[in-house]
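Thread: "does anyone have the structure for this chain?"

Original post by V.I.:
We have the sequence but no experimental structure in hand. Need at least a predicted one for the grant figures.
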Amino acid sequence: MDPSPASAPVPAPSPAPSPAPLPVPGPTAPRAATDGTGDVNGGLKSRLNWLRAGVLGANDGIISTAGLVVGVAAATTDRTAILVAGVASLAAGAVSMALGEYVSVSSARDTERAIVEEETRELAEDPDGELAQLARIYEQKGLQPATAWRVAEELTAHDPVRAHLDVEHNLDPDDLTNPWHAGLASAVSFVLGALLPLVAMILATPATRIPVTFVAVLVALVVTGSLSAWFGGADRVRAVLRLLLGGALAMGVTFGIGALLGATVVG
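Reply from O.Q.:
Generated one for you, tokens below.
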């Protein structure tokens, strides 16, 4: 028998190629300061400031003026007396709201300015220490030490004061609260809110003045309560119910006082 032919040599398997190293992401470039909505120009705090003042002013104007005119209407049917009392309440309330908002927001702005000055002074006195502090803060937020240090260096090179104000105080030096905006928004919204119960009371007949004003006020409070809840991200039903109960209570109390004093004076 013929010998079997020699088998062909089997080539050794070539080694599997080493996997390519995964790219190591570098530190994220510092982002421009935003207002939380992607707007790099900021301004969210200022807008929310006057919106808050506007909603509060409208609520105060509606409830306080409604309470006053309902109380006066319970004591007298004299349209002129009701009108004079309502206009006086409107003017006094608008000035009071504007002044109160201006003083309150001015105090907050003074505090913000003091924080900016303090951070500026600390950076001038100990820049290395402030850089290390910034890096530690980012490390505490979850970054690796090397990455945190790199981010701190880049942010410091760009704007050191802004970097510290943002991470330590959530403060934008270009978006400080504005007392003038808050005061003006509060005054204007108070006037607009106060006009509703005043006009409803004056235009209605003597027999329907109080119920018409009561219904108009409750509808207006539903609107302002919904807006307030929407701006603050709160539960709308709860916010509206609070306002409705407060408004109804205010008008009920002043109606009772007006009816009592009116009956006493007449008697």
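V.I.: this helps a lot. Residues 46-112+177-261 form one domain.
O.Q.: and Residues 1-42 have pLDDT under 50 and may be disordered.
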